[in-house]
Write a structure and sequence with these properties.
This protein is an all-beta fold. 0% of the residues lie in helices and 60% in strands. The chain is built from no helices and 20 strands. It has strands at 2-3, 6-8, 11-13, 20-22, 25-28, 31-34, 40-42, 47-54, 58-60, 65-84, 89-93, 97-109, 115-119, 124-127, 131-135, 140-143, 148-151, 154-156, 164-167, 170-173. The protein has a 17-stranded parallel sheet that branches. It has a 3-stranded parallel sheet with strand order 1-4-7, with no helix packed on it. The protein starts with a strand and ends with a strand. The relative contact order is 0.13.
Amino acid sequence: VNLVGTLTGGLPLTATTGSWVLRDGTISGGTVTATGGAQLLTSTVGGTFSGVTLATDLTLVNACIIDITGGLTLSGGVTVSLESTSAFTRLDFNGTQTFGGSGSVVFNGTNATNNRILTIAGDTLTIGAGITLQTGTQGATVGVLGSNLVIHGTLSSQTSGKTIDVACTTLTSN
């Protein structure tokens, strides 16, 4: 199933529903779960999460951009993997918001320059205490010049020679 419209209230994927592909669609509110081998897959046209709790692992394929409004919560220690090979692969936080819950973002692929977690200049992104941003096969950039970052979570370089660059006007970390 290709999600191209707006789905409100979460998405419980199961062996019966099968896997769905986020293809320029929007998931608004609720929790995304996946059991029985089903997955939420991404595409090069990305999509939008609006106030979503993600309770399943998610891989952003090369060139996938997920726009986020209303915050994003990771649940149960899930992993979001950004897999840039040549094009921008991003989580774009539009507006002042929080990236919270419990889980990690791992930067993979073959192109660190294009793995990004962005916010808009003038806005503030708060990364919660339960969130870990870590290098995998690649590094990444978090933030954008002119933005404000509040980092309560962990930035971790797990791979020799791979870095996470922080770009912002104001950085608060504790």
